[in-house]
Amino acid sequence: MSYKTKSDLPENVRNVLPDHAQKIYMEAYNSAWDQYDEPEERRGDSSREETAHRVAWKAVKYKYEKDKESGQWKEK
Fold first, then answer.
1. pLDDT tens-digit profile of 20-60?
2. Which CB contacts under 8 angstroms, 24+ apart, belong to 22-29?
3. How far is Cα 45 from Cα 47, in angstroms, rounded to an integer?
4. Is the Cβ–Cβ distance between 2 and 54 less than 8 Å?
5. 41 Cβ contact list (under 8 Å, min separation 6)
6. What is the mean pLDDT of residues 69-74?
7. Whole-number Å distance between alpha carbons of 52 and 70
């Protein structure tokens, strides 16, 4: 299932990521959800949802990092 709004994102994403990072996550997740719809397009036994979440987190980590002191996500 793709996400229509940021409020639809999982709680663990909404509660930790800044607004812009949530947008990145949602767009990357939705794109991966569409792209990896067939099992042979994914690695190993990963589900479509697992693959989309992995892609989304990778996209967030490209622009954001978790601050070691505060634990908050900040733009690189």
1. 999 999 999 999 999 999 988 888 889 999 999 999 999 99
2. 24/56, 24/59, 24/60, 24/63, 24/64, 25/56, 25/57, 25/59, 25/60, 26/56, 27/59, 28/55, 28/56, 28/58, 28/59, 28/60, 29/2, 29/3, 29/53, 29/55, 29/56
3. 6
4. no
5. 35
6. 95
7. 28
Task: End-to-end CA distance of the chain: give it in Å, rounded.
Answer: 30
Type of residue found at 62: Y
How high is the pLDDT of residue 53? Answer: 96
pLDDT of residue 1: 85
DSSP letters, 8-23, are GS-HHHHTTS-HHHHH
